[in-house]
Amino acid sequence: MIIRHEKVKAGIIGWGENTLMLADLLTKYAKNIDLVALSTSYDKGRDYAVRNLGIKHIFKHHVQMMDLHEIDAVIIAGPGHEHTDQIIDSLQAGYHTLYELPAALDITNAIKIVDTIEHYPSQIAMGALAHRYDSKFVKIKEKIQNGSIGKLVAIEIYVNQSRDSKIVKSDPGIVRDILLNQIDLVRWLSGQEIISVNSNSVGEGVNMSYAHFSAALEQGQSCTFTANRQSHQPLGTSMKIIGTEAEIYFRAPIETYEYAEISNGQLTPKSLDHDNRKQYLDILNAFLYTIQEKVKPNDTVKDIMSNTRTTLAFEKCLGLHGPISIDS
């Protein structure tokens, strides 16, 4: 695809907290990208985009945006069950496409996306996997790969999501909403697939629900995932990587980030007040870089298939408690 403009012109599909954050970042900090279109079924979102963001083209359905020849790229940030059709439609319309996970909710739709990506090789199709473009995680991956921690023994992941409403303990959303990116993080950091998963405990308490999983990597290492939804705890993630010679511990969010410049001056905020904003800037910069430099993104069609299969196995564990084998 040839960029039609000096700047990359983009449209966003969806409306919610993440969409608003993306729109805010693009309209306030972007130098080489213009947000010119938004599609959402929510009246509130369309009204806000007109009044507060000055977005030129507003649509009620994403299909309407597919006929807008003024844009070069589409950012998909709406409900997960709509992503498959939106990704496929965007690529078929000739747009570079950045999408939040999940790409697909089942293997059939994952295969449809893969077939479309392979059919349109000139379009960028990139998952919004912030960790793959975050310098701190890149350094952690390097330490694992170069043996700085000795041989990898285990990876432990803990994630808390603040949520006021009561969640049914078998709701697969506790995997999709909380652990999907963490599953990809473990795969990417270790360079291995998760081959089996077991759910040790799933339940709910006062104003909370939780799930704990133990899994195995291809080379025999163990990894654990703990997901909580609690009304009295803020959003947060911690990760411990255990090696034979050393351990790495990481905890987020970090309250404040200060940056003079990010990624070749594409986005230049002076300060960011939340870890999510830093993550989204990393994603947007990486997406812009792949478009402008005509390079492939960090994730591939293999990741779409592997993340879908692994997520489905985790969800299956919620009812069966495992162990569940994951086919490659």
Radius of gyration, in Å, reads 20 Å
CATH C-level class of the largest domain: Alpha Beta
Distance between the termini: 32 Å
How many beta-strand segments?
A: 15
Series of secondary-structure elements, N-terminal to C-terminal: EHEHEHEHEHEHEHHEEEEEEEHHE
**Mean pLDDT rating:** 83
The main sheet comes to:
7 strands, mixed
Spatial order of strands in the largest sheet = 12-11-7-10-9-8-15
Question: What's the CATH H-level homologous superfamily of the largest domain?
Answer: Dihydrodipicolinate Reductase, domain 2
| Helix fraction bin | 25-40%
For the record, the CATH architecture of the largest domain stands as 2-Layer Sandwich
- What fraction of the residues are assigned to beta strands by DSSP? 25-35%
Query: Structural class, from helix and strand content?
Result: alpha/beta
Q: Structurally, how many domains make up the residues?
A: 2
Describe the protein:
- The chain is α/β, with parallel strands linked by helices and 328 residues long.
- It has two domains: 8-128, NAD(P)-binding Rossmann-like Domain (Rossmann fold); 133-257 and 307-325, Dihydrodipicolinate Reductase, domain 2 (2-Layer Sandwich), CATH 3.30.360.10.
- 35% of the residues lie in helices and 27% in strands.
- The chain has a seven-stranded mixed β-sheet with strand order 12-11-7-10-9-8-15. Strands 3-2-1-4-5-6 form a six-stranded parallel β-sheet, sandwiched between helices.
- The relative contact order is 0.15.
